[in-house]
Amino acid sequence: MIDAHIHADTRPYEDFEMMALCMDGAITLAHDPFEMKSSDAWVSHVERLINNDVKRAQENGLKLFVCVGIHPRAIPKDYENAIEKIKDFVKNDVVVGIGEIGLEKATKEEKDVFIKQLLLAKELDLPAVVHTPRRNKEEITKIIIEEINSLDLKNEKIVIDHCNKNTVKDVLDIGCYAGLTVQPSKLTPMEAVEIVKEFGGEKILLDSDSSSAPSDILSVPKTVLKMKLNDVDKEIINLVSHENAKKLFNLTI
């Protein structure tokens, strides 16, 4: 199993060991752990993910990969410098994508930063992981889809994450991957099971979004168990919990 979206910098050593007991690996992403007053603060955040958290996970038996990007809640004033710095960070072997990027309130600045990073992901031929907010999810997801459709992108390399039952179809219809986040206030394991039963396993990923918010670091294996108990086909379970993430991010696990 692969957890396709966590925030390792917020988690203790013990979580990595617990994940390693039943999972092949995880992907940690840039987010908003503190106010990004400048691109220097953002650089320090990303450097911790690459240099510190990958090592912490490895020491506890978990293979951890990294996506780098500017979260919509953590845009530094000099964000152009941060976007340029992404080009250096992706040269590191543990970096497998751009993220998490996206929209929170769909302000003009958010859209500008989002579009620039989508285009950079296309230029670098890397997957992009797109954030959708808890509030106004359906409305903001529609705006995200409009922005993606306005650009000549490789939609098959984009994950629109934190989907719910009302947004999954629209995301899959434009050829993007749909991320199902099993986390309090997002999806329960059974809600994820019902979505997978309806839409199948193609282009769907499971993740926990484990962070400083209420989270369950084992929500992916717990959801897999619920799928088994509810007669979801083994091939579909394998796709959503492992193979889709492995293929999209070109992971060596």
From TrEMBL:
One of its GO terms (molecular function) is metal ion binding. It comes from the Archaea. Coiled coil: none annotated. The keyword Metal-binding applies. Keywords: Hydrolase, Metal-binding. SUPFAM superfamilies: Metallo-dependent hydrolases (SSF51556). The keyword Hydrolase applies. PANTHER family: HYDROLASE TATD. Belongs to the metallo-dependent hydrolases superfamily. This is TatD-related deoxyribonuclease. It comes from Methanotorris igneus (strain DSM 5666 / JCM 11834 / Kol 5).
